[in-house]
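Example 385.
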Amino acid sequence: MDYGLTETQVMIRDLCRQIAQEKIKPIREHYDEANEFPHEIVKVFAEADICGLYIEEKFGGMGGGIMDLSIAVEELSKVCSGIALALAATALGTFPIILFGTEEQKKKYLPRIASGQSLAAFGLTEANAGSDAGGIRTTAVLDGDHYVLNGTKQWITNGGEAEIYSIVAITNKAKGPRGASAFIVEKGTPGFTFGKKENKMGIRASATRELVFQDCRIPKANLLGKEGMGFIVAMKTLDSSRPGVAAQALGIAAGALDEAVEYSRQRRQFGKPICSFQGVQFMLADMATQVEAARTLIYAAARYIDGGAKDVSKISAMCKLFASDTAMKVTTDAVQVLGGYGYMKEYPAEKMMRDAKITQIYEGTNQIQREVIGLGLIKESAARK
Ligand code: COS
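Predicted structure in complex with coenzyme a persulfide:
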C-alpha cells in the first residue's frame, strides 16, 4: 500500500528504512545492553539530513510536517525505537519553539536543530508532577532582564545529550496552571546541571536524565510566548508530539510483526512450518490488522494536524492511545509466536516488547489520553447544542 504518500515522503521512508537496516540493526543490541546513547547514529541522521524534516525551509529544515516526522520515526523504530527516540524527543523539545517562538528565537535555534548540530529536549515532568502537569514546582523568578530558575525535572529524554531545552516553570504560584511559563535553556548555562541517568526496562539506547536548576539565570528573551502561557505551550506541544510517539509504537509493532512472520515460516514443528497452523495464522492476522489500523489512524491524525486544524487534542490522543496499546499487544504476541526463542535475547522480539511498554506511559499515560479523548467528546457535544 502506498497510503497516498507524496514522492518526498516515499523518499523519506526508503531512506530511513535503509539507515535502519544498514546502520542501526548491526549495533542495536550493543546500545540496548550497554544502556548507551548512540552518538554515531545521530551523526548518520545529520548526514542524511533527516533532523529537520518538520522544520521550515527558511530555518534550514525540509519544510515538512508531523506526517514526514512520523514516517521517519516509524521506519527507524521498526529496528530500534530507543535509537529513533533521539530524533523523536528532539521534535518534542523543538515544537514549543516552532509553535510559540519569536522569529528571533526560531532563527537562533531551529537551524542548529535542523542541521543535526544540536539535539533538543522537553522538560515538563517532575518527581511529583507527571500526569498532573499543572502541579510542577520548578520556579522562574524575574530579576532584571533575567529569569532565575530553581528546581529539578525528571525522566527527561535526551537529557544531558541535548543542547537546547524547552522548560516549563512556575512564574506565578497563585495562578495554578495559568501561572506557568515556558523557556528555552541552553546546555552550559551556569546553574544548569544533569542529575541521575536512569537505568530503564526498554528504550535503553535513549538518554533519560534529571535536569537540575540551581539559581540558573537565563535571559528574559528566552521566554516562549507570554508569561502565564506555559501550560498551554505544554499542552499544544503534546498535541503535536503525540503522533510521533504513536509512530514510534507503530514502528515497534510493525517490526515485531515482521519478526514473527519470518520466524513462523522458518520454524518447523510436527513436520511443518508453524505458519501453516491456523492457530499461528490467526494470531499473525490479528497483529497485522492492528498494525494497519494504527498506521491509518496516525496518518489521518498527522495529516489533520499538518492541514492546520485547530483542535487536535482528541485525534492526537487517540492515535497515541491506539498505537501504543497495539505495540504492547503485538510485541507480546510476537514473543509468543517465537516461543522459547522469543524470550531469549538472541532474538529482537523481547527487546521490542520491553521497548513497547513505555509508549503506553510517556507523553501522557494512556489513562490521560482517554481523559483527553473523553473531554474532547464532551466539548464537541456541548458545541453542537
Ligand atoms: N490546548 C490548549 N489549551 C488546553 C489544552 C490543549 N490541548 N489542554 C488544556 N488546555 C487549557 C484548558 O482549556 C484550561 O484553560 P482555562 O484555564 O482557560 O480553563 C487550562 O489549559 C487547564 O486545563 P485543565 O483544567 O484541563 O488542566 P488539568 O490540570 O485538569 O490537566 C491534563 C489536564 C490531565 C489533560 C493535563 O495535565 C495533561 O495532559 N497531563 C499529562 C501530561 C503529560 O502528558 N505528561 C507527560 C510528560 S511530558 S513528555
